[in-house]
Specification:
Distance between the termini: 56 Å
Oligomer: single chain
CATH superfamily of the largest domain: K homology (KH) domain
Helix content: 40-55%
Radius of gyration: 18 Å
Number of strands: 6
CATH class of the largest domain: Alpha Beta
Number of helices: 5
Low-confidence stretches: none
Length: 150
């Protein structure tokens, strides 16, 4: 059985076991960047506050899939394209915060966020020569500081 099939079957079974239904789509055209999206009426619960349930669901799904395929299988799990919209929102936030840091000449500290969200902020501002970003603190309170280069 192909990885994409194992992933889809496992997530459908996981949803059924949890008492949820939804359509599972797997984009496995690039085996290094497999994206799985669940379209469901239960998105609020599956995503949870700031994606915490989605992160837990992704971890559980990865463990189950890796066990079935006898190898570590990495994929990104999404529900109703939440992560896709969140990434766009974070990119927009990064640009707005960079403008604020430049205009006001102050360092702007963002709220704590998971590593993959911090990475999006860093990557979005990486090519801005007048802006510097750094992560500070310890998880789960780790956050980004955006400041103008002096």
């Amino acid at each position: 059985m192909e990885k994409a099939e194992i992933i889809k079957k496992t997530i459908v079974e996981l949803l059924e076991t949890m008492g949820f239904d939804g359509d599972v789509a797997v984009n496995g055209s690039d085996e290094k960047n497999i994206l799985v999206n669940i379209e469901t009426q239960h998105a609020g619960f599956l995503i949870g506050h700031t994606g915490t349930n989605l992160d837990a669901l992704q971890h559980l799904a990865r463990v189950l899939v890796s066990k079935k395929s006898n190898e570590s299988v990495q994929f990104l799990l999404d529900v109703n394209s939440y992560r896709k919209y969140r990434i766009e929102l974070l990119k927009e936030l990064a640009k707005n915060i960079a403008k604020q840091a430049l205009t006001e000449g102050v360092a702007v500290t963002l709220q704590p966020m998971p590593a993959y969200e911090r990475r999006i902020i860093h990557l979005t501002l990486m090519d801005e020569p007048q802006i510097n970003t750094e992560s500070i603190g310890e998880d789960p309170e780790r956050r980004i500081v955006v400041k103008a280069v002096k």
